[in-house]
Every structure is written in structure tokens, then in C-alpha cells.
């Protein structure tokens, strides 16, 4: 696989803490709106510009000019600067529990994406794709890389770069970026990557798909490359998303009866929020955990079994991507939050499962198939506005 150095747009060390952003820093919409009001530098003025505009989210042509104006102002104020030399960027993230992730931020060819050398496992929502294409076209930037992975290691010994950013974010993660500008070092990384047959998208399906459409529709831009954070597969941390379902009128007895048609169902005295065994599922409803196990022979993954035999079959939810009956709870958000959402009546029940293994995700990608939405919650999560691809 070919990778390319580039001149990143990025915040200076004085502004990086105010500029870089993640929507999960502000779990409530009100907190996010407050952040937009009090922090003139946050990159949320690009990614969440609709929150500063009183109007329909479906009208991006009305609020995206605010995002473009923000970028112009940040450049004028010296908060964002453009690198002078084509470079690769070593990115290191260290969580407060000591877990570290380390990889390379580089450009990949859009043609490798369209030719399926960069492989996918999720379907794309048309409205999300359309919005991102308009965002790229209006602002002429992409502020967060697609997370790519592959089987192998990443040799980084004897590389000599310049540390350009080092900071702690509000979620207590430490971030460090080292710029590699040496032609020798760049060639060393490129030579290693040339031996990789395929990359797999771990996170960022909509960003990569939108970039490809953006290039197809607007070839006059400098947009034939896609910014990616490339990390070996053995460095990923994969957690599950759990399903939350609301269904008025259905009783606990009816749910258990329907489940029993395809699963063994038993009450559990202990929590089933975290599961280790394949085919074991947890269902929480009416303040009770139920162990639900699929015992028939099947090549389906656990998330596919949930989608086919519970989400669709029992609750009639044909499209999990768009149906308001279903929501997704990342495992990292905790059991208490999930249980309270059911106990307080916000949702009828929760379905838990063990994390999908990336080897399963890779198998699905190799077959050019897709998984249900939110099949994996993958760390690391990068901050928007930290390293920015400039299409202008």
C-alpha cells in the first residue's frame, strides 16, 4: 500500500488545547452548545457548526459558511498554521490507564479506496455522506483522519523527527505528535507500507466514502488523497456497542416468548453487561438480566445474530441505521448508565454482547460484505482539529 507525506494544517502548541475537540467531551447537547459560545477556538465550529445556526440541519448551505469563516479567522489569529514541508506524522496517545497507541498519520490514495484495497465493513448513510461532501467542499479541509489497520507491525526504531505537539486533553489522554520530514525516514516507512497488501477501515467509513465522492464530483481540488491514521491491528482495543430498544406495548413475557423461539433464555442473578463467550448475549428489562444463548449452528457473528433474530424478527426494525426505536450504547459508557435508561423507562430493554474480534471484521471486509451498524467500538479515538488535511 502506498502512503504519502503532506503539509498538515494544525494548531500551534499555544492553542492546541482550545482547538482540538471531540463531541464526547460534552455528552449533553447543552454542554456542547455552551462550548461553542465560550470557546471561539474550538474545532467544533467546523464539525458542529449547525448548532450555532437556528435552522434545519438538512440545510448545510446555510450554516457551513460559518465553518469556513472559522478556519479563516483561526489562520489570521495564528491559532492554525500550515506545515512548510511534506511530512509524515507519528501520533502517540496515552490513556490515563497507561494504554498507549502509536501509529502514522499520512495520506492514502482515494483510488485505493475505490478499488477496495482500503477495505470496508459498514454501509454508508446517504444523508451523512452528502453532508460531509458539502463540509469538505465549503471548508476545504478534513479535520480528522480515517483509522486504518493491517496485520503486521510498524517499525519506528531509529526514526528522527521533531516533536511539534504534546498536550493533555480534557478526557485525560496525553497526545504527542512527532513530524518526520527526513526523506530517508519517509522512504523507510513507505517501503515498509508497500509490502502491505490491504488496509482495513477500523473507524471513519463515512469520512473515507465522502472523500471519494468529493474527489469524484470536484476533481479540481487537491483531494485525490485521504488522510489516515495507520495503526497495526494488534494495537487496536475493541469493545462492543450494546443495543437499546424502545417498543411500546410489548410485555416482558412476550419478549421472552419470542426469544425462546430461537434462543435458550434463563434469568441471571449477576450482571451480563460484560460478556466473554461467543453466542452469549445479555438482555436487561424490567430490572432483570436474562442470559440469552444462540445454540444453533451458524456462521453469523453475534452482532449479526442480534440484528437478524432480535432487532428485525422481534421488533420489526428493518434498518438500524435510521430507525428511532434503536440506539447504541458504547461499552465504555458504563453499566450504570445503561441500566438507568431502562429503569427510568427511556428504553424497553438493552441487549449486550461480547466485542467482535477484528479477525472477524477482516473476514467480512475480504468478502466485500457489511456488518450491522455499530458492530465495534474501537480505540483509539482521535481529536478533530489536531492534524488537518487541507484541500485548497
Give a description of the structure.
It is a single chain. This protein has helices at 16-19, 29-38, 44-47, 60-76, 110-114, 126-139, 183-193, 205-217, 252-260, 302-312, 335-343, 358-366; strands at residues 3-4, 9-11, 80-82, 88-94, 100-109, 118-119, 141-142, 146-150, 162-168, 174-180, 199-203, 225-232, 237-239, 241-245, 264-268, 280-285, 288-293, 326-330, 349-353, 377-379, 389-390. The chain has 12 helices and 21 strands. A hairpin with a 2-residue loop joins β16 (280-285) and β17. The strands form 5 sheets. Strands 1, 4, 5, 6, 8, 9, 10, 11 and 12 form a 9-stranded mixed beta sheet that branches. The protein has a 6-stranded antiparallel beta sheet with strand order 15-17-16-19-14-18, sandwiched between helices. The chain has a two-stranded antiparallel sheet with strand order 2-3. The chain starts with a strand and ends with a strand. With 392 residues, the chain is an alpha+beta fold. It has 2 domains: 3-7 and 83-238 and 378-390, Conserved hypothetical protein from pyrococcus furiosus pfu- 392566-001, ParB domain; 241-354, Conserved hypothetical protein from pyrococcus furiosus pfu- 392566-001, domain 2 (2-Layer Sandwich), CATH 3.30.1760.
